[in-house]
């Protein structure tokens, strides 16, 4: 089994860590060795957060180098662009079209970059960009963007939806389980 490298990138508070925990729960049960590395950044203040998830028959390190990510799952467009150099040739970038203003934009020091999805496509990246936030809101909470994106990832990779739903039952607080399962289903259905 070759090693698969996944980067989960977003802004503090978007649920990147829950997404990596769900994957980390599912993959060992599928017979994979899994390594996860969480880099928090300024997560408490809305800064960039990235998590590396690597799985295969034997994984030595959780770190993903530039040009090695098979998948980047981005919760926000600027984060997709920020981490694009980590995507390998032939890799897949799955991103929400959502835009969250970073501090320099909030303070007026600069503007949010325009046309990021077009600029990403110009690099030759295999991009799937969708209005994930609308699906999360439809599921019941904008905070379920993470699980909607996992639904898209599951569909692309062929990982059985039931495995994700079982992980949601085991990891997510009971009052949020059904909403997260709905979010997962909405993401799974967009392809």
Describe this structure in words.
There is one protein chain. By secondary structure, the protein is of the alpha/beta class. The chain has one domain (4-188): Pyruvate-ferredoxin oxidoreductase, PFOR, domain III (Pyruvate-ferredoxin Oxidoreductase, domain 3). 41% of the residues lie in helices and 24% in strands. The chain has 8 helices and 6 strands. The protein has helices spanning 16-29, 77-82, 103-106, 116-122, 132-139, 145-157, 161-171, 174-188, and strands at residues 4-11, 33-39, 48-56, 69-74, 87-96, 126-130. A 6-stranded mixed sheet has the order 2-3-1-4-5-6, with helices on both faces. The radius of gyration is 16 Å and the shape is globular. The model has no long low-confidence stretch (mean pLDDT 93).
Core attributes:
191 residues; alpha/beta; Pyruvate-ferredoxin Oxidoreductase, domain 3; 6 strands; 24% strand
Proportion in helices: 40-55%
Named CATH architecture: 3-Layer(aba) Sandwich
Structural class: alpha/beta
Query: In the residues, how many domains can be counted?
Result: 1
- What is the N-to-C succession of helices and strands? EHEEEHEHHEHHHH
CATH fold name? Pyruvate-ferredoxin Oxidoreductase, domain 3
Strand content: 15-25%
Give the overall average pLDDT.
Answer: 93
Unreliable segments of 5+ consecutive residues: none
Secondary structure blueprint with pairings:
Elements: E1 4-11, H1 16-29, E2 33-39, E3 48-56, E4 69-74, H2 77-82, E5 87-96, H3 103-106, H4 116-122, E6 126-130, H5 132-139, H6 145-157, H7 161-171, H8 174-188
Parallel strand pairs: 1-4, 4-5, 5-6
Antiparallel strand pairs: 1-3, 2-3
């Amino acid at each position: 089994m070759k090693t698969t490298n996944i980067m989960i990138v977003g802004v503090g508070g978007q649920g990147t860590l829950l997404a990596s925990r769900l994957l980390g729960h599912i993959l060992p049960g599928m017979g994979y060795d899994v390594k996860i590395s969480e880099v928090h950044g300024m997560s408490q203040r809305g800064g960039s957060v990235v998590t590396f998830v690597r799985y295969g028959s034997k994984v030595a390190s959780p770190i993903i180098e530039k040009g090695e990510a098979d998948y980047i799952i981005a919760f926000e467009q600027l984060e997709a662009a920020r981490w694009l150099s980590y995507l390998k040739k032939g890799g897949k970038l799955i991103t929400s079209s959502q835009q969250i203003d970073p501090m320099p934009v909030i303070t007026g020091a600069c503007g949010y970059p325009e046309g990021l999805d077009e600029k990403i496509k110009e690099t030759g990246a295999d991009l799937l960009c969708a209005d994930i936030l609308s699906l999360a809101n439809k599921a019941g909470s904008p905070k379920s963007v993470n699980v909607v994106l996992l639904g898209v990832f599951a569909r692309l990779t062929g990982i059985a939806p039931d495995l994700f739903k079982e992980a949601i039952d085991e990891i997510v607080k009971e009052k949020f389980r059904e909403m997260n399962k709905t979010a997962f289903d909405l993401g799974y259905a967009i392809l």
